[in-house]
Amino acid sequence: MLFTIKNEICTFCGLCADDCPSKVIKIDRSSKTAVIKNEGCIKCSHCGMICPAGAVRVDGKELTPYPKNSGGAAELFDHLILSKRSIRKYNNKLPGSTDLEAILLAGQLTATASNSRQVDSIIIQSPEVQKTAASIARIIQNVLRLVRNPIGRNILKLAGYKRYADKALLGNFHNRMSNVIDGKSDVLFFNAPVVVILTYSKKGKMFGRTDCALAGQNMMLTAHNRGIGSCMIGFAEAALWNNRLRKKVGVAPDRRIGLIFTLGYTDRKHLRYPTRSKWEI
Ligand SMILES: Cc1cc2nc3c(=O)[nH]c(=O)nc-3n(C[C@H](O)[C@H](O)[C@H](O)COP(=O)(O)O)c2cc1C
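Above are the sequence and the flavin mononucleotide SMILES. Below is the predicted complex in structure-token form.
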């Protein structure tokens, strides 16, 4: 899958570069060039979905635009599911309590294996979200200090993380964490006003993670239906192995984290569906 930008159509507005999670798009307004560096691109299609001019091409083709007419209830429901995207930019508007309650209810009523009902939620709201992001960033920096030296990088390579053993990449990562700590830019929770942590019992039944994933997806779809964006944050989940931090965010010692996601309103408007590998019938 090759992502390119038709420079003859592009208005160089920069929305694609801003929405790109991998930051692999370079826009040069003076020379009127926009280029996608395909190495490092995770092929999520966000550039093509958001481009107002329709300038992004995937293997030479434009992405499928959202339908002009909403159609019937079935089409509306399909569109709701197909247009659910990971949102990484939030505005200042806070989700209201009615919406939050509906989102929680969607999670509570989701099926669990053998109806174990082992899923529970922790809701973190601003300004606690930003404080939590800073605490997580400090933990990540501590780990980075251990692996940034030649021995640490060799261990990373031996452990199969060759991609992350790059000195410049680790340094850049460290700087990005400093920005989170200083409140300059939040690459963890994207300044979302709400973060939801779904947990399940350590001693409980099997399928705790699956139960959390299902509840989380229903919650995010309910949010999407109400114009509220979301993004799963595996990154934060990975950093929350630290017991002190887990306690700080309210995860009881007998619980495991199953899913973490952000919630918030966005000004981002995606206009097309993404492209993905086809599943054959
Ligand atoms: C389990 C899981 C963990 C994720 N963790 C992160 C994360 O830490 N940060 C992030 O920006 N996106 C995260 N994502 C979002 C994916 O990067 C996203 O699904 C992908 O870019 C495709 O975009 P879309 O969801 O808009 O279709 C995660 C998604 C999943 C399913």
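The pocket of flavin mononucleotide is lined by residues 21, 42, 44, 85-86, 88, 231-235, 274 (CB under 6 Å).
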